[in-house]
Structures are given as structure tokens and as C-alpha cells.
Amino acid sequence: MEFTAQKIAELLKGEVEGNQNVKLNKLSKIEEGEEGSLSFLANPKYKKFIYSTLASAVIVAKTFKPEKPINTTLIKVDDPYTAFAQLLEFYNQIKLNKTGISKMASIADSAKIGIDAYIGDFVSIGENVIIGDNAKIYPQTYIGDNVKVGEHTTLFAGVKIYSECVIGKNCTIHAGVVIGSDGFGFAPQSDNNYKKIAQIGNVIIEDNVEIGSNTTIDRATLGSTIIRKGVKLDNLIQIAHNVEIGENTVIASQTGVSGSTKIGKNCMIGGQVGIIGHLIIADEVKIAAQSGLSKNILKKGSIVQGSPAFEVKKYMHSYIHFRNLGNIVERIEKLENK
User: Fold this and answer.
1) pLDDT in tens, 198-216
2) Catalytic residues
């Protein structure tokens, strides 16, 4: 892809200062700029690089005034950071704008494929599957029987969606995600063996959800495991059977949520958090990284930390004593000796 500085300025509603016809075919950091690349300057601490960058053009604020000669074309906008983010999104849309159905895909006769959908090589689509308009299914993805995938949703390479699951509109599901595998349900027997409990529910992913690579979401024993609209899940997360995650909640990598726990809306959960089963977590709760949650959090907006987790201010106060524990023990021993 190649654009002129003028074309980029029109896209970003900015103005060009310099060579408006300079050709741009890549994006770069300002300190790593090279001929043909477009960069941006938003953080003042990188200002020094604009005088030495080899980038052919740099997006800057309209208020920017160089203090000495520069060799690059400037594209002046109201907010460089927002403009560059907009440009990245535009670039990504073009890069990922695939259509067509591969001859090497296996698609059941009863499946329905929407308009302008992309189906890559070695994709397997089962019976009665519905793929929405403009959906993109990348190579080596498996979609089981009776699955529904909403319009404008992207499933990257190697995604596995078991039967009966529902994926909403405008979702992004990254490589290696598994949706709808069996929940961890086993009944202990008198001979110390375990009998598997059939998992006959499904998973429902609502609209505008993003799921990171190699995350797994188990199907419900009965009913549905539900990921509400706007949820963002990082890589390497385990969501167990019958869990429900509320709207716009975000969860960082390596967190595990045990069965039947209900998480509210607009929560923020850090990395490596462990949450036991059958809990209720209120809206707008924040759980610090590496915390272990073993009790309900019923107060909206609570912030907790630790394992087991408790109120963050109390945790910080207690942690001060913990760090000083050696000194405290030493003082007690001296007092006892006296």
C-alpha cells in the first residue's frame, strides 16, 4: 500500500507542511524512521528525533514549531496520538480485508455463508452453521455443527468452536482460542474414580468481544457460559463452565475463573488472578494481579488485592507490617529477654 502525504492529511483532516507528494508505504517509530515511512510525534521526550529521523513524513500537532531545520514532511493535526491510532486502524482494515472462499475449505451443504465472507484454506464448517456477512474465517479454523458467527466477526487461524455455540457481531477471536470444549465436571465415585458428567450446554459470545490467543472458554453443563458484549479477554485465560462475565469487563492474561462464577459489568481483573467457583462479583470491581478470590464481592466498585484477596488499603497496610516482620520479631525477642 502506498499513499501520498496529501492523501494521509485528507484522511486525518490535517494539513501538509513540506512535500505533499512524498510517497509513504510503511509505518515506523520516529527514532527508527526510514525512507518511505510515516511516523508521529506525540510525546515531548521524543521531540529530539524529529531533527534526525529518516522518516519521509511525521504526524505532529498543529501547534508544533521546529526549533531548527528538519528534513521531513510534516502532517499537522489536532491530536497526533489519536490521528496515528486512527491511521493504524485504517491500515489494519486494509491489511485484513480478505474475501472469497478457498477451494480447500470443507463446508457442509447445509451451512449458510454470508455476503463477502472470507473462508481460508483448510477451514472446516459443520452442518447448519451460519456465517454472517463480512465475517472472516482464517485458515485451519474448525466450526462445529449448529454454530452461529455474526457479521463482521473475525476468527484468526486455528480457532476451534465446538457445536451449538453462538458468536456475536464485530468480535475478534485470535489464534488458538477454543470455545465450547467440555467443562471440568466429574463426580467422585466410591472406588475413588471419577465419572464424567456430560456437558450439554453451550457458549454465547455477545457483540464486540475480543478474545486473546490460546484462551479457552468451556461450554456449560446445562444452559450457557456467557461472555457479554464489549468484554475484552487477554491471551491464555481459562473461563470455566457456566461462568458469566458482564458487559465491558476486561481480564488480563493467565487468569482463571472457576465454574458458575458471575462477574459484573465494567470490572478490571489483573493477570494471574484465580477465582473460585460459584462466586458473585459486583459491577466495577477491580482485582489486582496475582490475587486469589475466595469470597463474594458484593460492593460495587470494590478494589481488592492479595491471596486471599481483601480490601486494597487494608492489604497495603498489612503488607507494610509483613515487610517489617523480621524487625518486629527481633524487637519482641529482645523484650522477652529483658
Assistant:
1) 999 999 999 999 999 999 9
2) 241
